[in-house]
Design a protein that fits this description.
Structural class: alpha+beta
Helix content: 10-25%
CATH superfamily of the largest domain: Fumarylacetoacetase-like, C-terminal domain
Radius of gyration: 19 Å
Number of helices: 4
Shape: globular
Length: 302
């Protein structure tokens, strides 16, 4: 099932790939609970809600997807985490050489057709948008064994990790943690629709120009490993969003006025707009970073 938020904070289910059925009526006291609590409840109690949603979807035709305004699938999770370097995208990178490591993103997630507002921070030399597979937690997780980890996942969502280059890695709060630097969507695809998250094609475009094009099979630490590691140190909650890292080949600059797109196989496609700060080119800070044949070790890319 593909679950989404739309218009004035309604809850919908995608039907036949091109229509949205409003299932908000199945959720009691939706307005009083507020947007985030509603999504947490839908996720926590999905075993109950699913039957009600399926009944409504079978009965109603819905409205065309093109007629609704999509919102961020999760309005403000308790945590939005993202993996540091987690792809075997260079010859010198191995699973053993890439220990699990994560950082916090701002929890104010940006929905489809939203605007990323780039800050003009003097040390920043270029901004990039890293296309990533993210997963949504379905239940609380603390000290979870790797063998049991997938039972805590609710679903998946395309996600951009917008990143400023040129600042020291210790200051990730500034270059990666700003509001609007976590564009995602279009919806949450529930876990049962995706039997193999380790074999998905991830693509991105800027102004229609192809940028990234990779497969999640090259992920160093798979989702169960990530959950097991994270749950040792933080209490993961239902509706938390965790981005799994990116394959760096194909990255390039984003600037004010650009149009940014992401598509993940079986999970959908979203578009975002870029405002402010620019123009900048990769060559102004690190020659060859966009050249797949010339990976550089001059600066750690995350």
């Amino acid at each position: 099932m593909k679950i989404l938020r739309f218009n004035d904070d309604r809850i919908g289910v995608l039907k036949n790939g091109n229509h949205v059925v409003d299932v908000s009526g199945a959720i009691k006291y939706r307005t009083e609970k507020g947007p985030q609590r509603v999504m947490e409840e839908v996720i926590e109690e999905f075993g109950v809600y699913r039957k009600e949603f399926e009944t409504i979807v079978a009965r109603e035709g819905g409205v065309p997807l093109s007629n609704v305004k999509l919102l961020a699938p999760i309005p403000r999770p308790s945590k939005c985490l993202a993996a540091f370097v987690n792809y075997l995208d260079r010859p010198d990178r191995t699973v053993d050489s890439l220990p699990p490591e994560f950082f916090y993103k701002a929890p104010e997630l940006l929905g489809p057709e939203g605007t990323v507002e780039l800050l003009d921070i003097p040390p920043v030399m270029v901004y990039q948008a890293e296309a990533e597979l993210a997963f949504v937690m379905g239940k609380k997780a603390r000290n979870v064994r790797e063998a049991d980890a997938m039972s805590t996942v609710f679903g998946y969502v395309p996600f951009f990790d917008v990143s400023a280059r040129g600042l020291a890695r210790r200051t990730q709060f500034v270059p990666k943690g700003q509001a609007s630097y976590s564009p995602c969507g279009p919806w949450i695809t529930t876990k049962d629709e995706l039997t193999d998250p380790d074999n998905l094609v991830v693509k991105s475009w800027v102004n229609g120009e192809a940028r990234q094009n990779y497969n999640t099979k090259d992920m160093a630490h798979k989702i169960p490993d990530q959950i097991a590691w994270l749950s040792k140190f933080v209490q993961l909650q239902p509706a938390d969003v965790i981005a799994t890292g990116t394959y760096h080949v194909g990255l390039g600059p984003i600037n004010g006025g650009d149009v940014l797109e992401i598509e993940i196989e079986k999970l959908g496609k979203s578009r975002f707009f870029i405002k402010g700060y620019g123009p900048r080119k990769d060559e102004e800070w690190l020659p060859g970073v966009s050249q797949p044949a010339k990976p550089s070790g001059m600066m750690t890319k995350v």
